[in-house]
């Protein structure tokens, strides 16, 4: 028979977590993860794999911004004014949106995965000033020539919305191939400019998270990339469980 002071051990997705029943013993804090990667680094795929296995709340600043505007929130209305004028939404508005989302009950209970944000030193510093700091900052590292190849080879099926790649994921039929289009910013010249901006910004962000950064070799299969991330997240959970148990 289990006593009030016994600990329950649960296994979720192969990971043992400890739920301590003893009064006054805090549960382990959930994972707080940030992930960054250049265009075509495979970040979207890894976010999906991480959230599926670990149940974290996936938060992308761009999606959040659009949702706030649609909902007509106070921050959304402010953001809409700038967007309608063709201006960038100021950092302080986006930071407040991110902060409010991270402090929602689901993110506090399950943990969160902040996708592609912060993108600059000022954004990272603003989050630090609010006491928002990740357990781990994941950076997907892919050689620039591979990123260019991935982007330039992308094609869109305007009918189905499916994304193909001429080399890695070619269309199934000639009929589909004949209607594929290329996005205007998926040219070599434009992607090199986007990559240059990304590299400059990510170095500034890393200066804040240098002690928390995990550089992952992103030039592998999606499963091998995830294996690197999964190993680090398992280790983090084990440390949190051990700290809670003591």
UniProtKB/TrEMBL annotation:
Reaction(s) the record says it catalyses: AMP + ATP = 2 ADP
E.C. no: 2.7.4.3
CDD domains xref list: ADK
Cellular component per GO, a single term: chloroplast
GO MF term list: AMP kinase activity; ATP binding
Location (main, coarse): plastid
Stored InterPro entries: Adenyl_kin_sub, Adenylat/UMP-CMP_kin, Adenylat_kinase_CS, P-loop_NTPase
Localization annotation: Plastid, Chloroplast
A Pfam family: ADK
Keyword line: ATP-binding, Chloroplast, Kinase, Nucleotide-binding, Plastid, Transferase
UniProt keyword Chloroplast present: yes
Enzyme kind, highest EC tier: transferase
HAMAP family, per database record: Adenylate_kinase_Adk
Family: Belongs to the adenylate kinase family.
Designated name of the protein: adenylate kinase
């Amino acid at each position: 028979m289990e006593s009030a002071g016994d600990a329950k051990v649960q296994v979720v997705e192969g990971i043992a977590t400890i739920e301590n029943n003893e009064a006054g013993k805090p549960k382990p804090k959930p994972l707080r993860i940030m992930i960054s990667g250049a265009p075509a680094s495979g970040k979207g795929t890894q976010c999906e794999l991480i959230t599926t296995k670990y149940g974290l709340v996936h938060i992308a600043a761009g999606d959040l911004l659009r949702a706030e505007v649609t909902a007509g929130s106070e921050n959304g209305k402010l953001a809409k004014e700038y967007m309608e004028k063709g201006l960038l939404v100021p950092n302080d508005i986006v930071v407040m949106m991110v902060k409010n989302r991270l402090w929602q009950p689901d993110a506090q209970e399950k943990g969160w995965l902040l996708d592609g944000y912060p993108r600059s030193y000022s954004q990272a510093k603003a989050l630090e000033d609010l006491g928002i700091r990740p357990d781990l900052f994941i950076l997907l590292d892919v050689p620039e020539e591979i990123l260019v190849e991935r982007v330039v080879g992308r094609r869109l099926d305007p009918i189905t919305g499916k994304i193909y790649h001429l080399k890695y994921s070619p269309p199934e039929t000639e009929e589909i191939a004949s209607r594929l289009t290329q996005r205007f910013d998926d040219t070599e010249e434009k992607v090199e400019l986007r990559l240059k901006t990304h590299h400059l910004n990510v170095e500034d962000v890393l200066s804040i998270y240098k002690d928390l950064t995990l550089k992952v070799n992103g030039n592998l299969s999606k499963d091998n990339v995830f294996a690197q991330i999964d190993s680090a997240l398992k280790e983090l959970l084990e440390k949190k469980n051990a700290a809670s148990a003591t």
